TrEMBL record:
UniProt-listed InterPro entries: RNA_pol_sigma_54, RNA_pol_sigma_54_core-bd, RNA_pol_sigma_54_DNA-bd, RpoN_core-bd_sf
Pfam families: Sigma54_AID, Sigma54_CBD, Sigma54_DBD
Organismal lineage: Bacteria, Pseudomonadati, Verrucomicrobiota, Verrucomicrobiia, Verrucomicrobiales
Organism of derivation: Prosthecobacter debontii
Protein name, per record: RNA polymerase, sigma 54 subunit, RpoN/SigL
GO cellular component term, pick one: DNA-directed RNA polymerase complex
Domain RNA polymerase sigma factor 54 core-binding: residue ranges: 115-299
Positions with biased composition (Acidic residues): 56-67
GO biological process, alphabetically ordered: DNA-templated transcription initiation
Record keywords: DNA-binding, DNA-directed RNA polymerase, Nucleotidyltransferase, Sigma factor, Transcription, Transcription regulation, Transferase
Membership in a protein family: Belongs to the sigma-54 factor family.
Region described as Disordered: spans on this chain: 53-74
Length: 474
């Protein structure tokens, strides 16, 4: 009989306290959501106030040292200094260095860099990779690379062949990494295109030999255009069976990443406004929609009064500490966003000067290295944040994309390649539209070397129909 009893085991786990959870939430929250967070904190913390008045904190602190003990004096002096710096920050609407000790800064950065919350598709996939028990570090690295190469649908934004040529990674290694990625949730993530995405989902459902699988595999265009009678004749099956199979296919998810994409707001207020100062482009934080906070003088007066009971003092101290942490977290959020925006502008100067066709490839690892934070911090900081540029308002993640090399050796972003494809299609002869193969050849003449499959992927991402469906007979 097995020995039964109680045993203790020790495990290491990074606990996330309520304040640090709040700090992570503040970093990732879009401005409108952050306003709600601030409003909620004001409702539960009486020490917090909106709009700092002209009177300084020192004017609210009693002059008589007998009215409070040295501990309270030190705490109020620290609050006075923090409030002055915070008001100066809002007055300038520019980023200042956070007022915290080196130990506090290191602890904050360690937690920001180490705690992974599965709130984005990339974080969700990385968490699965960490638990997949893959012993080959090169395979892990290649899977991480593919995770960083996914578009908003959850598809690879370039073919494995193109990525192998562009980055000098053996194609077999990338195929192995892709197989691992496609075993993760959501089903279909890491696919090359819609066809592969739907086939993977059907296979996971045990329908590899079904009519639905055959329709997706061989007749996707006919299926998309609901040519059910033609399909019935081609396959020699009743029309009703084709209709039922099509209905089943419609229940599959054509965009595996959709549940991880934040719902778009009808109204977008930019977090950053790009301004030209002399010959330089600089990011200016837009704090118009972000309420400024301060700590209530009335409660600091109460803390400084000798007549206040110990229970009252403890309550006020607790609320002041919570308020200080909230203000510092907001300050740190603004600093991080500003630093990231500064690096984006440094990389995308040509885009600012000439437009979207000149967007350059940029990845989060580059910016993270230059800012001095972890890639997950960059991912959180740019989530749902927008920047107003001379060419329109763009979400910060718009500026991060992989790319291809031109014949001259220059890097060109995927967005620029998509724009080039759109321009070619815009001027094509309507009676004889350009095929994906022809588009690839025309791009090659422009010095942009991409495979036909990549052209098809970008065309689909632009919502442009294939050539035979663009043809005009009039």
């Amino acid at each position: 009989m097995a020995d039964q009893g109680l045993y203790q085991t020790q495990t290491q786990k990074l606990a996330i306290g309520p304040q640090m959870q709040q700090s992570l939430q503040i970093l990732q929250a879009p401005t409108l959501e952050l306003r709600q967070i601030i409003q909620q904190e004001i409702e539960i913390n009486p020490v917090l106030e909106l709009e700092a008045p002209e009177v300084s904190l020192e004017d609210a602190v009693p002059d008589d040292p007998d009215d409070r003990d040295s501990g309270d004096r030190d705490e109020l002096d620290a609050l006075s200094q923090m409030d002055e710096e915070w008001r100066e920050y809002w007055a300038q609407s520019r980023m200042q260095t956070a007022n915290r000790s080196a130990d506090d800064q290191e602890r904050w950065q360690f937690l920001m860099d180490s705690i992974v919350a599965p709130t984005t598709l990339q974080e969700h996939l990385v968490s699965q990779l960490r638990t997949a028990e893959i012993e080959d570090p090169l395979l892990v690295k290649n899977v991480e690379f593919l995770i960083g190469s996914l578009d908003d649908r959850g598809f690879l934004n370039s073919s494995v062949e193109d990525m192998s040529l562009m980055h000098g990674v053996p194609i077999d290694d990338l195929h192995a990494a892709k197989a691992v990625l496609m075993s993760f949730d959501p089903v279909g993530v890491g696919s090359d295109d819609l066809r592969e995405c739907l086939l993977v989902q059907l296979e996971r459902l045990g329908k590899k030999h079904s009519l639905a699988h055959r329709l997706v595999d061989q007749y996707l265009e006919d299926l998309a255009n609901k040519r059910y009678p033609i399909l019935a004749r081609k396959l020699g099956v009743p029309l009703e069976q084709v209709s039922r199979a099509a209905d089943f296919i419609s229940t599959l998810d054509p965009r595996p990443a959709s549940r991880f994409n934040p719902s778009s707001n009808n109204y977008v207020s930019p977090d950053i406004i790009v301004e030209r100062q002399g010959s330089e482009w600089v990011p200016v934080m837009n704090n118009d929609d972000l309420p400024s906070l301060r700590l209530s003088n009335a409660y600091k007066d109460l803390l400084g009064q000798a007549s206040s009971s110990g229970e009252v003092r403890n309550y006020i101290r607790d609320k002041i500490r919570s308020g200080k942490f909230l203000i510092r977290s907001i300050h740190q959020r603004q600093q991080t966003i500003h630093k990231i925006a500064t690096q984006i502008l440094a990389h995308q100067r040509e885009f600012l000067e000439k437009g979207t066709s000149f967007l350059r490839p940029l990845n989060m690892a580059q910016v993270a290295d230059e800012v001095g934070v972890h890639e997950t911090t960059v991912s959180r900081a740019i989530s749902g944040k927008y920047m107003a540029t001379p060419h329109g308002v763009y979400e910060l993640k718009f500026f991060f994309s992989h790319g291809v090399k031109t014949e001259s050796g220059e890097d060109l972003s995927n967005t620029s390649v998509k724009n080039a494809i759109a321009d070619l299609i815009k001027t094509e002869a309507k009676a004889k539209p350009l095929s994906d193969d022809k588009l690839a050849k025309l791009l090659d003449k422009q010095g942009i070397k991409v495979a036909r499959r990549t052209v098809a992927k970008y065309r689909e991402a632009l919502g442009i129909l294939p050539s035979h469906l663009r043809k005009s007979f009039s």
